[in-house]
Design goal:
245 residues; mainly alpha; Glycerol uptake facilitator protein
Length: 245
C-alpha cells in the first residue's frame, strides 16, 4: 500500500474507533451510555492498535503529526516526507470523525448536552487553566514519543518513504496500544489527552460543520492547546533522546 494512503486509512480507523467509543459512552440511548473512563481509554488504545495493524507495514504507522515531527527531529524520518504524512493524517482524522457522526446521527439529535456532544469529537479541559492544560498535553505527548523512540532503538537511522518504515509500528501494535491506554488512564483526566494534533483538530472541524440539534460551540479558543502542546512534547522528547543517546 502507498505510505500516504496507509497513513490516511490508519488514522481514519484510529479516529473512528476513538470518537466512536466516546459517542457510544456519552450519547443518549446508546447501549453503552454512561460507561466509564476505563472503556474510553481502552477504546482509544484499541483504535491505535487497529490503525497500527493497517498502516504499520506500509508507512510505519505514524498516525499523528507529533510522531512524524518527533521522529524527524530525532533523525529517524526524512523531513521532506513529513508534509504529506501530516496531510494524510489530517484528512484521515476528519474522515473518521465524520463517519462517527454519520453512524450516530440519531443519537446526536436526541442528546441535549452540548458538552457531551462536543466531547465525542474533541477534547476539553476538566478545569480550565491554560498553562496547566498546555503542560498536560506536552507531558502526555512527551511520554508517548520518548517511549516510542526508546523502543524503536538507536540502530534505526534517518529513513524515508521507500526505506525501513519507522513509527508506532516499530514498537508493535500491542505495546503501543498499551502505551496509549496507560497515558489515558494516568494523565488523560486533565484535558482528555489529545496527544495528537489531528486527533483534536480534524474532529473539531467536523463538529463545527455537521448538523446536530444541540451541539453548542466548537470552543475554538481552546483548540490551539491540543495542537501546539503535542508538538512541543514531541520536540522535547526527541531532543532529550538525542542528548542521552
Amino acid at each position: 500500500m502507498n505510505p500516504i494512503v496507509a497513513e490516511y486509512l490508519g488514522t481514519l480507523i484510529l479516529i473512528l474507533m476513538g470518537t466512536g467509543v466516546c459517542a457510544n459512552s456519552l450519547l443518549k440511548e446508546t447501549f453503552a451510555r454512561g460507561a466509564d473512563w476505563v472503556l474510553i481509554t481502552l477504546g482509544w488504545g484499541l483504535g491505535v492498535f487497529l490503525g497500527v495493524i493497517v498502516a504499520g507495514p506500509s508507512s510505519g504507522a505514524h498516525l499523528n503529526p507529533a510522531v512524524t515531527i518527533g521522529l524527524a527531529v530525532a533523525g529517524k524520518f526524512a523531513w521532506s516526507d513529513a508534509p504529506m504524512y501530516v496531510l494524510a493524517q489530517f484528512l484521515g482524522a476528519m474522515s473518521g470523525a465524520f463517519l462517527t457522526w454519520l453512524l450516530y446521527a440519531d443519537h446526536y439529535n436526541r442528546t441535549e448536552e452540548p458538552g457531551s456532544i462536543k466531547g465525542t469529537f474533541c477534547t476539553s479541559p476538566a478545569i480550565k487553566n491554560t498553562p496547566r492544560n498546555l503542560l498536560s498535553e506536552v507531558v502526555g505527548t512527551f511520554v508517548l514519543i520518548i517511549v516510542v523512540l526508546f523502543i524503536a532503538g538507536p540502530e534505526f537511522k534517518s529513513q524515508g518513504i521507500g526505506d525501513v518504515k519507522i513509527g508506532l509500528g516499530s514498537v508493535g501494535a500491542l505495546p503501543v496500544a498499551l502505551l496509549v491506554v496507560s497515558i489515558g488512564m494516568s494523565l488523560g483526566g486533565l484535558t482528555g489527552y489529545a496527544i495528537n494534533p489531528v486527533r483534536d483538530l480534524g474532529p473539531r472541524i467536523i463538529h463545527s460543520l455537521v448538523p446536530i440539534k444541540s451541539k453548542g460551540t466548537s470552543d475554538w479558543g481552546y483548540a490551539w492547546i491540543p495542537v501546539v502542546g503535542p508538538i512541543i512534547g514531541a520536540v522535547v522528547a526527541a531532543l532529550l533522546y538525542l542528548l542521552v543517546i
